[in-house]
Write a structure and sequence with these properties.
- The complex is a heterodimer of chains A (316) and B (305).
- Chain A is mainly alpha-helical and 316 residues long.
- Chain A has two domains: 56 residues, no CATH class; 239 residues, MetI-like fold (Orthogonal Bundle), CATH 1.10.3720.
- Chain A is built from 14 helices and no strands.
- Chain A starts with a helix and ends with a helix.
- Chain B is an all-alpha fold.
- Chain B has a domain of 172 residues: MetI-like (MetI-like fold, Orthogonal Bundle), CATH 1.10.3720.
- Helices cover 78% and strands 0% of the residues of chain B.
- Chain B contains 15 helices and no strands.
- In chain B, α5 crosses α12 and α14 runs antiparallel to α15.
- The N terminus of chain B is likely disordered.
- The chains are: A mainly alpha (316), B mainly alpha (305).
- At the A-B interface, α1, α2, α4, α5 and α6 of A face α1, α2, α5, α6 and α7 of B.
């Protein structure tokens, strides 16, 4: 908002200045601008844009790590193979299953925790510490912790179920029906703090008076929550949902370490499929095809994020 | 934002309406306090229970890490160590490579952060202050980069660094992580808020744009610099997939990648694995304790403002 009038003011001042001075200023600016954009631009082209283009192109070739280079042109053969490969579809299915298992609790739980924490003025630091601290940890630490907790016979999770009267707790990471759920639970523990912090900040933006006014009008705590507070969190929810979806679709680390896609490929996500075809089977061409397909899916969701950022940028 | 803005503009009326209703309905307010107090108490109970539950995995790892191997074998799921010991830590630190991984992670994360902050802020300065043709398209093209997930670029990154012979060096870990679109965005937002009069005055005095960037704008941008520094550092420190591919020499690994080899190659006993996990958690937990407020504000501000 504030930049628009300012920049108009600046152009007017520039126009009233002498023509020569203005010309000197713009030509000077152009070279300075290029120079200042160059360092970032070089990294951007070499490590983001270039590789993306390469991936798109390499998907039409049969390149391999062994032979090196792009390989030979194979047209749409890689695409045909991907669409016909059960592994491609099952890994995509696993990715979506993980996304469902994590995104819903990560939004609902984060919102619930933030709403509860927001009611108390003291002790916020403790809740922030408890819920957010895990988010700071590397994925390998998370994996080590939960492989120990989920261990058969000697793990805390099975012991707790037995303590509560359960007869035969499943092998959390060894049972194909449970492995993904177990990994999702660990992921929720790990990352809920990020969304929690975003919601907490959004809640603090809601003016005190809004709460008071609603209370004065006779709204109970539950009604206030449902009719006043939650609707005001729309923007935060969109942001959280988009970031969460993108992150879930790219899941790799904790699965690579905890199960490496097993048992029976029941936890192999798409990115692990790319990793395995690209680096275990050395088929970089085919792996590029799968990468690009995954990119298209993520792109559709990221477009919403891009729109959000653009809008923020215009409003600022 | 639409909802937040409309709510903010609606505030004055809502507030004044509220005071009017307040005078009339004081009796109703008194009746409500009891249920409100109960509601608060239940909420607090649930919240504390959940917070304690959230602390379990880390506490459990620590409890395991101080138990001697014999004790762990007889009773694996006990919270108490009869004879607590730091022997597992000593063992892991002396026999393992964790000290190397600390150093490697610190060097790569620090250099990546330095390069990211420098390149992103310089680009953001040009986009915020200089007037040149295609400024808007260039900015949008950079912003569109948020939609490119770096994880999907592992194959071309690997091929590039293999071709230049840089695999297994710090540069292999650092270079692909340098371009940070969100950092450009955060810096530009911040620079846009610095009054133009300030930079125009310096310009009129004959200062070059580079000097204005370095001596006026950057010193004023400490909050943005620290926010970007913290989040790029943490993100790079924790990054896993790319360093896993870039480095195979155990001596050159970063901490997160090295910790997976503890599990695979050394087959360490559980107590030592948990000691490694705690050591792996320690650096960023410390960072978090020191910069809690900054980190939290950084996250909230990056996405929302």
């Amino acid at each position: 908002m504030s930049t628009a009038p300012m920049s108009t003011a600046r152009t007017t001042t520039a126009r009233t200045g002498t023509a020569a001075g203005q010309a000197a200023r713009t030509t000077g600016s152009r070279w300075t601008a290029s120079g200042m954009l160059l360092p970032f631009g070089a990294f951007y082209v070499v490590f983001l844009l270039g590789p993306l283009v390469y991936t798109a192109v390499a998907g039409f070739f049969n390149g391999s790590l062994v032979k090196g280079g792009l390989g030979d042109w194979v047209g749409l053969k890689n695409y045909a193979e991907a669409f016909g490969a059960p592994e491609f579809w099952s890994s995509l299915g696993n990715t979506l299953w993980f996304t469902v298992l994590t995104t819903v609790p990560l939004i609902v739980l984060a919102l619930a925790l933030a709403l509860m924490t927001d009611r108390f003025s003291r002790g916020k630091w403790f809740f922030r510490l408890a819920f957010f601290a895990p988010f700071m940890l590397p994925s390998s630490v998370i994996s080590l912790l939960f492989m120990w907790i989920y261990a058969d016979e000697i793990g805390l999770a099975q012991a707790t179920v037995k303590l509560l009267g359960g007869q035969a707790p499943p092998s959390w990471l060894g049972d194909p029906n449970w492995a993904m759920i177990s990994i999702a639970a660990a992921t929720v523990w790990w990352t809920v703090g990020f969304n929690f912090v975003i919601y907490l900040a959004a809640l603090q933006e809601i003016p005190r008076e809004v709460h008071e006014a609603a209370a004065m009008d006779g709204a109970g705590p539950w009604q206030r929550l449902r009719l006043v507070v939650v609707p005001m969190l729309g923007r935060a929810t969109t942001l959280v949902a988009v970031l969460q979806l993108v992150a879930s679709l790219k899941v790799f680390d904790q699965i690579y370490m905890m199960t490496n896609g097993g048992p029976e490929d029941s936890t192999r996500p798409s990115l692990l499929y790319v990793y395995q075809t690209g680096f275990t089977d050395s088929r970089t061409g085919y792996a590029s095809t799968v990468s690009l397909l995954l990119f298209v899916i993520i792109l559709l969701i990221s477009l919403v994020w891009f729109a959000l950022i653009r809008r923020t940028e215009k409003e600022a | 934002m639409a909802t937040l803005t409309s709510a903010a503009s609606g505030t004055p009326e809502a507030a004044s309406g509220g005071t009017g209703a307040g005078k009339a309905g004081r009796g109703a307010a008194a009746r409500r306090t009891d249920s409100e107090r109960l509601f608060n108490r239940v909420t607090l109970g649930v919240l504390i229970a959940l917070a304690l539950l959230w602390l379990v995995p880390l506490a459990w790892a620590f409890a395991t890490s101080v138990r001697p191997p014999g004790e762990l074998a007889t009773n694996p799921t006990s919270w108490v160590a009869d004879n607590p010991t730091l022997a597992n830590y000593r063992e892991v630190l002396s026999a393992g490579r964790i000290p190397y991984w600390y150093v490697n992670s610190f060097i790569t994360a620090a250099l990546t952060t330095l390069l990211s902050v420098f390149t992103a802020s310089l680009a953001a300065f040009a986009l915020s202050r200089l007037r040149f043709r295609y400024r808007r398209p260039v900015f949008l093209a950079i912003l569109a980069g948020v939609m490119i997930p770096p994880q999907l670029l592992m194959i071309p990154h690997f091929l590039t660094l293999q071709a230049t012979g840089m695999l297994n060096t710090y540069w292999a870990v650092i270079l692909p992580q340098v371009p940070n679109v969100v950092a450009v965005f955060v810096f530009k937002q911040f620079f846009d808020g610095i009054p133009v009069e300030l930079t125009d005055a310096a310009r009129a005095d004959g200062a070059s744009w580079l000097r204005i960037y370095w001596q006026i704008v950057m010193p004023l941008s400490r909050p943005a610099i620290s926010a970007v520094t913290i989040f790029v550092f943490v993100w790079t420190w924790n990054n896993f997939l790319w360093p896993l591919l870039a480095v195979t020499d155990p001596q050159m690994m970063t901490l997160p990648v090295g910790l997976t080899s503890v599990q695979d190659a050394f087959g360490l006993p559980q107590a030592q694995l948990m000691a490694s996990a705690v050591l792996g958690a320690l650096p960023l937990l410390t960072v978090f304790l020191f910069f809690q407020r900054r980190i939290v504000e950084g996250i909230a501000g990056t996405g929302l403002k």
